Amino acid sequence: MFNEPGSKIKTFSIIIFIISVIAIFVYNLIIFNEADGLLELLLIIGAGIVEILASWIACLFIYSYGQLVENSDIIAENMYKLETRSIFDNYKK
User: Fold this and answer.
1) Residue 91's pLDDT band (boundaries 50, 70, 90)?
2) pLDDT tens digits, residue range 41-72?
3) Residue 17 has pLDDT above 90, yes or no
4) Domain segments of the chain: what residues?
5) Contact 6, 70 (CB under 8 A)
6) I want to staple 17 with a disulfide (CB 3.0 to 4.6 A). Which of 38, 42, 59, 66 is the partner?
7) How far is Cα of residue 24 from the mean position of the Cα atoms in its chain?
């Protein structure tokens, strides 16, 4: 459950984005059927594009946080390797 949290956060971000795009599409289809004029149709399409972009930006922040967690795990592993190495290892023969 707690192994590799960075990859799980990134996967969660992708899933949330896909669900939000589907929800936006369904919602805009429902409103699209009730629209009367051309201006309303253009506003619905424009609002749908803005909603998808906003969802993408929000999920991008979550995804980048997952990447940050993965990178911090890699840095922590490398720090352990550096700490366990002695400064005199190079002089042993």
Assistant:
1) low
2) 899 899 999 999 999 999 999 999 999 999 98
3) yes
4) 5-84
5) yes
6) 59
7) 18
